[in-house]
Design goal:
The complex is a heterotrimer of chains A (about 290), B (about 325) and C (about 250). Chain B has about 325 residues and is an all-alpha fold. Chain B is about 75% helix and about 0% strand. In chain B, the strands form two sheets. Chain B has a two-stranded antiparallel sheet. In chain B, a hairpin with a 2-residue loop joins strand 2 and strand 3.
Chain lengths: ~290, ~325, ~250
């Protein structure tokens, strides 16, 4: 393989991984921006989404698009239950809410363990084969991931920028008290935003299920990635999550191809520290008022 | 005043009794497994006290186990590759962990609390990943076996029951240190920083430095306790101190209560036996931990150790008017 | 002697110039009032002087040294304390513990203090009690701060700042939210504090009667700039000041 091919391949892989990370990060940063919750269980919804997809598409052979939809909806329901039972009770106490989310993560991960067992299961590929483009080879399965993620982000953009609901959500993220005074039903926005964030995580999990394998333990890594990306991109900033996700995906891909996996992780951590030192609000985040 | 003196004497007596029971515990234990549990409990107490110190200054370290892991590997490698006596290795482990915490803390503690949590968590994960990947040094996923035991004054603590008195002594020393720290002027500055950082800053206290110091001390303790564990189990691997450990220390802290130095003792006593008793179904054990954590936060957020105090307050007639205008504090 | 010198102070937030070209001096022993309509920039000036915000331009000199841009805790240790608008306290701590924490501006951590905390505590509580006495709170020493009446909480806020033995004390709307008797009482207390401890003070206030009663000199801000400076009598007669307040919200006594 020529250098250009390797480079191009690395870029494509980086973008694919970056898309998934982006979905995770957007969901996470939205929940934080609107509800001020650091959700340690975010990755577990990714895991549940992956399992739901594996069950519908793999075990019951439901058509692909419908499987995706069902996976998202069922996971969103689980998310709603968690929000009503646990997260809504910690409004105003963010620290305890965060610790509670750790408890939720534990419960979800080990419930999955008890229900489905620890062994990873594989899901049949959605589309087999590859597509060739100027000497670069893209497996169709990865292209599907990229397309799926792009569609989701596009729909999300339309929702946030051009609908009344999106305007309401942005208002709440800016200042919940003022939004309440303006007549926005904050009590409805909160669970809605949470479910939306969960849905994004579930989509990411479902899209990746055929590419990687599915087990109860796949949730922690996406959570970590979401955290790293959101620190880099800026807490509460969706564009920051997009940029950060793609950036991290590319760094990981390049470092993984040309260096070792360990160095890839360290490099990302260094990027985090550098951003924190040089631009603490994140690349696209809002500056805090006080000195 | 007399009632207070009597109270103090009662508490002091209770503490002496508890310490005596802890010392004589191996005599009454039905078998060695219980002594092992006791040792694990002592080590847990050290970890939780370290976390409590950090939390006392208002921060939450979700990467606590990362420092334990670093400390463990440092001591294992120093004693095996460099021939250091294990005790020295433990001290070195604590210093290394403290140094990393100081550097990391100085950088990230100036941020909003939430960013600190995320980066501290990332550190814990990075530590595990590094342990896995740097396999020439760390042995990779297989870890390091045959770590030499601790020896005190020439006597080797090779067998597990021998280790218990030493572990107890270390745990009690840490407890004493924590108690003295809390009562000291610096300890009050820590509590003030946690309760109202803006006001504390305006009272002339460098709250950033205060939090960094607390983070350094607490993580250093974790490093030392991690090293002690390694010389007890004679083994370390990337699986020894993961996010799950960070969570279990946090759970013990929450369940016990972080207000005083004795809350962690309660948390450790309640939760240490749990994993061992539920070892058969590991998944169930973790679910129970998670449920305990959430329920505790919902219903007893100040921890079990706060219950006696709250009961006695309700018992006494509260003087003064009940004009509860909340003084504005936001974390 | 000039204790505080503010020179050409400017502070920008994003695109908004909140404060521009503010210059004034405070002499030792004075009680200066800083007034202006809502949004005039008084609190911003306050926050820049006390180190909560950094100046975008200009300088602040205190006791002969440049303190512009220093972090708040270092400015406090040099003898410049402030109170806050909302009652900012340690709600779960007792009144005496609140006041003790105010003494940290003047005490060092110290290894000896850490090993023998009982003695340190006794000394600190001694100082704290004296401050509580001046503010009429010593009867309430054992009460939790959150259980105090609102007026008492405001006084506790002043006590905490005073416990640091400042040379200059800045008070941010100390009588806001108090009824007329409480406001008058606090004004009396402030006058007594100033006399007994020889402290210089700056008062940011909306409440005209308190300002006129207490202050020997007044600086008026409007839309981020100074529009007048002088004695209370001069300020009341100043046409620019009158115009600034005409039609805007003021709380009269």
């Amino acid at each position: 393989m020529s250098m250009e091919t390797i480079l191009a391949q690395t870029v494509v892989n980086g973008l694919m991984v970056g898309m998934i990370y982006m979905l995770m990060a957007i969901g996470f940063t939205m929940v934080f921006g609107i509800m001020r919750i650091v959700n340690f269980a975010h990755g577990e919804f990714y895991m549940v989404g992956a399992f739901m997809f594996a069950i519908f598409y793999g075990s019951y052979e439901v058509p692909f698009a419908l499987s995706l939809l069902l996976a998202i909806v069922t996971t969103a329901l689980v998310g709603l239950v968690m929000e009503r039972l646990v997260f809504s009770r910690f409004r105003g106490n963010e620290l305890n809410g965060m610790i509670a989310s750790v408890g939720v993560a534990l419960i979800m991960q080990n419930a999955a363990l008890l229900i489905w067992g620890p062994s990873p299961r594989s899901v049949p590929a959605v589309v087999s084969g590859v597509i060739s483009f100027g000497g670069i080879v893209f497996p169709w399965s990865r292209v599907v991931v990229i397309i799926g993620a792009l569609i989701a982000v596009g729909l999300l953009y339309v929702l946030i920028a051009h609908t009344q609901l999106g305007r309401a959500m942005r208002a709440v993220a800016q200042d919940a008290e003022i939004a309440l005074a303006q007549g926005i039903r904050v009590e409805v926005i909160f669970p809605l935003a949470f479910v939306l964030g969960v849905a994004l995580a579930a989509l990411a999990g479902a899209l990746m299920a055929p590419v990687l394998s599915v087990s109860p333990f796949v949730g922690l890594a996406p959570t970590l990635k979401a955290f790293v990306i959101v620190v880099i991109g800026g807490l509460g900033s969706v564009p920051g999550a997009v940029a950060g996700g793609l950036l991290i995906g590319l760094i990981e891909s390049f470092a993984g191809t040309f260096m070792s996996a360990a160095l890839a992780e360290i490099l990302q951590f260094i990027v985090v520290i550098a951003v924190v030192l040089l631009r603490p609000q994140g690349l696209l985040g809002r500056k805090e008022r006080e000195a | 005043m007399r009632a207070q003196d009597g109270n103090k004497r009662l508490r002091f007596g209770a503490i002496i009794l508890a310490v005596l029971i802890a010392i004589l515990f191996p005599r009454f234990a039905p078998n060695q497994f219980y002594v092992h549990l006791g040792t694990v409990g002592c080590l847990n107490l050290m970890f939780v006290l370290g976390l409590a110190i950090i939390s006392r200054a208002g921060q939450l370290s979700m990467g606590h186990a990362g420092f334990a892991l670093v400390g463990g590997y440092v001591s294992a490698l120093l004693s095996m590759k460099a021939g250091w006596p294990a005790l020295l290795g433990v001290l070195a482990a604590g210093l290394v962990a403290a140094a990393i915490a100081a550097a990391l803390g100085w950088i990230i503690l100036r941020l909003r609390g939430v960013y600190f949590v995320l980066v501290a968590f990332s550190f814990g994960q990075i530590a595990v990943l590094l342990a896995l990947d740097m396999s020439d040094i760390t042995g990779g996923a297989n870890g390091i076996v045959g770590v030499p035991p601790l020896s005190l004054f020439g006597y080797s603590l090779a067998s597990k029951p021998d280790f218990y008195p030493f572990a107890l002594a270390c745990a009690l020393a840490t407890l004493l240190f924590t108690w003295m720290l809390y009562r000291s002027p610096f300890g009050d500055r820590m509590a003030a920083t946690a309760e109202n950082q803006r006001l504390t800053e305006s009272s002339g206290v460098d709250t950033h430095a205060t939090q960094v110091i607390a983070f350094t001390i607490g993580s250093g303790i974790a490093g030392m306790a991690g090293a002690l564990s390694v010389h007890y189990f004679r083994f370390i691997s990337p699986d020894s101190f993961t996010f799950w450990e960070s969570v279990s220390y946090l759970t013990m802290l929450v369940v016990g209560g972080s207000a005083g130095a004795f809350g962690p003792v309660v948390g450790v006593l309640v939760l240490t036996p749990l994993p061992e008793m539920l070892r058969a179904t590991q998944g169930l054990q973790h679910i129970i931990y998670g449920a305990v954590l959430v329920l505790c936060l919902l219903f007893v957020p100040e921890g079990l150790s706060s219950i006696p105090r709250r009961l006695s307050q309700r018992y006494r007639a509260t003087p003064g008017p009940d004009t509860s205008t909340p003084a504005g504090t936001r974390r | 002697m000039s204790l505080l010198q503010v020179n050409g102070l400017k502070r920008v937030f994003g695109g908004l110039v909140a404060v521009r070209d503010v210059s004034f001096e405070v002499q030792q022993g004075e009680l200066l009032g800083l007034i202006g309509p809502n949004g005039a920039g008084k609190t911003t000036v306050f926050n820049v002087i006390s180190g909560v915000l950094r100046p975008s331009a200009g300088s602040v000199r205190f006791a002969g040294e440049d303190i512009s841009g220093l972090p708040a805790n270092r400015i406090v240790r040099r003898g410049l304390s402030r109170t806050f608008q909302a009652a900012t306290l340690y709600p779960d701590a007792t009144v005496i513990d609140n006041a003790v924490r105010g003494t940290y501006a003047r005490s060092s951590v110290g290894l000896v203090n850490s090993l023998f905390p009982a003695r340190w505590r006794a000394e600190a509580e001694d100082k704290a009690f004296k401050v509580l006495d001046v503010l009429g709170l010593s009867r309430r020493a054992g009460v939790k701060a959150r259980e105090l009446a609102y007026g008492e909480q405001r006084r506790l806020g002043v006590a905490i700042a005073l416990a640091g033995e400042p040379k200059l004390l800045m008070l941010d709307e100390p009588v806001a939210g108090l009824n007329p008797e409480e406001a008058a009482e606090l004004a009396r207390v402030l006058r007594r504090v100033k006399a007994e401890r020889d402290i210089t003070m700056i008062l940011v206030e909306h409440h005209m009667r308190t300002v006129m009663d207490l202050c020997s000199r007044i600086v008026v801000l409007d839309h981020g700039t100074m529009i007048a400076e002088g004695t209370p009598a001069q300020i009341v007669a100043n046409p620019a000041v009158i115009e600034a307040y005409l039609g805007k919200d003021t709380s009269h006594a």
